[in-house]
Amino acid sequence: MTILVVTPAPRGARTGNRMTALRWARILRGLGHRVTVAARYTAQPCDLLVALHARRSFPSIAAYRRRHPRAPVVVALTGTDLYRDLRFSASVGRALEMATRIVVLQPMALQALPASVRRKARVILQSAGAPRRRPPRRHDAFEVCVLGHLRAVKDPFRAAAAARLLPPSSRIRVLHVGAAIQPGTASRARAEHRRTPRYQWIGERPHAEAVKILARSRLLCLTSKLEGGANVVSEAAAAGVPVLSSRIDGSVGLLGPRYPGYFPIGDARALAALLLRAETDPGFYAELTRGVRRLARLVRPARERAAWASLLAGLTQG
């Protein structure tokens, strides 16, 4: 089968959507298909269109449907699709209607879908490989990483605000990796470091380097206001790194409702309390670790590959 994967993230971008599209392309090629990744559909010949991001890829979905009214279309939903645009954008609803299958990245996403299209939906958790060797951890600090671009939806400075609330005795150091996507965020990040030396922003880094920073960290801190099912949570679980996350469906759907590492969206004080508890309470840290180990079993690459094989087999049989 010839498959076109469409993602609005351009070639060379290190955004989550682009990384997901490239990983899916590798999986689909491994299943024996011919796969191309593009920013949009421009009448390229293909047997299947996989469109990542319903709203932003809607022009491609609509154009492909007009040209191939009976061909299969898989629409993969992002966090903004599910938890923002679905309520306000007619394009998202139309994309779901045009889709043969809908892919979501964690099971709680199914509840956000209109009942009329849930039968089309399949849950495919994003996978991550375990690091071959864990980089050595710092002994002079309790290192916490934030892996996320500086965008409003990521609430990027919440960890810095929490770090300011920590007592002088804390050895926590927050290292933030991510590109300054929105204007003014780079200067804000540098100002946060001057104000709170235990927080440091180091800008964008290649994915391999970012994963090494994650693997050596004691915690991953995810402060987003919404996520579809962040792959960085899968990467943390694969590396055995506990997660502190805002209580959003995208994280609860992955880590489970009983996972103890959640804080209310935007609540720096609650995040600071969790950070300090993870640093000082070995029992709590062990509980967090057990939680991510349960997720690690679900995000093995073989499971994601099998999920895609099953989805494609269903399309072929249909």
Could you please describe the fold and organization of this structure?
This protein has 2 domains: 2-125 and 300-317, Glycogen Phosphorylase B (Rossmann fold), CATH 3.40.50; 142-296, Rossmann fold (3-Layer(aba) Sandwich), CATH 3.40.50.2000. 43% of the residues lie in helices and 16% in strands. It has helices at 16-30, 58-67, 79-88, 90-98, 109-112, 158-164, 185-195, 207-216, 231-239, 249-255, 268-280, 282-296, 301-317, and strands spanning 2-6, 34-38, 48-52, 73-76, 101-104, 121-123, 142-147, 172-177, 199-201, 219-222, 243-246, 262-263. A 6-stranded parallel beta sheet has the order 2-1-3-4-5-6, sandwiched between helices. The chain is elongated. The two termini are 15 Å apart. The model has no long low-confidence stretch (mean pLDDT 94).
> For the record, what CATH class of the largest domain applies?
Alpha Beta
Strand content: 15-25%
Overall number of strands:
12
Total separate domains: 2
- Stretches where pLDDT is under 50 for at least 5 consecutive residues are none
What descriptors fit this protein?
single chain, 12 strands, Rossmann fold, 13 helices, 318 residues, six-stranded parallel β-sheet
In short:
This protein has 318 residues and is of the alpha/beta class. It contains 13 helices and 12 strands.
Furnish the topology, listing elements before pairings.
Layout: E1 2-6, H1 16-30, E2 34-38, E3 48-52, H2 58-67, E4 73-76, H3 79-88, H4 90-98, E5 101-104, H5 109-112, E6 121-123, E7 142-147, H6 158-164, E8 172-177, H7 185-195, E9 199-201, H8 207-216, E10 219-222, H9 231-239, E11 243-246, H10 249-255, E12 262-263, H11 268-280, H12 282-296, H13 301-317
Parallel strand pairs: 1-2, 1-3, 3-4, 4-5, 5-6, 7-8, 7-10, 8-9, 10-11, 11-12
Helix pairs in contact: 2-4, 3-4, 6-11, 9-12, 11-12
